[in-house]
Specification:
The protein has helices at residues 60-77, 93-102; strands at residues 18-25, 30-35, 41-46, 81-87, 106-112. The protein has 129 residues and is α/β, with parallel strands linked by helices. Strands 3-2-1-4-5 form a 5-stranded mixed β-sheet, covered by helices on one side. The chain is elongated and about 90 Å long.
């Protein structure tokens, strides 16, 4: 007698109407993480996950596509308002913010948390001639 197979129920994420979007714009890649207000990750995407390889991962277009995919998941789950936190020196920063806005999310605030050296590393010694 064949055994009955039971399917697992697809787990739906409890999404609040507001959240935070962390954009980490590195030199080689752009990471977008959408969290709830407490900081628990709900959706994440990157330029590499969006299908770009090599040097094309660091382009603003790749950052746009990655942000659109992450924000699209958040919008379909019911998220409306988002606070954006940007980190890193990459060139995909602004294009990722524009992509979040274009998908229908209401951007409440934008803050930049890129670490800046107060004094920096010790410079090289003077060259002897």
């Amino acid at each position: 007698m064949p055994r009955k197979t039971t399917r697992k129920k697809k787990k739906t994420k409890n999404v609040t109407p507001s959240g935070k979007a962390y954009i980490t714009a590195g030199v080689n890649n752009t990471l977008i993480t959408i969290t709830d207000p407490a900081g628990n990750t709900l959706f994440a995407n990157s330029s590499g996950k969006a299908g770009f390889k090599g040097t094309r991962k660091s382009t603003p277009y790749a950052a746009t596509k990655a942000a659109e995919l992450a924000a699209g998941d958040a919008v379909t789950a019911g998220m409306k308002d988002i606070a954006v936190i940007v980190n890193g020196p990459g060139i995909g920063r602004i294009s990722a913010i524009k992509a979040l806005k274009s998908t229908g999310l209401n951007i409440v605030s934008i803050s930049d948390e890129t670490p800046m050296p107060h004094n920096g590393c010790r410079p090289k010694k003077k060259r002897k001639m």
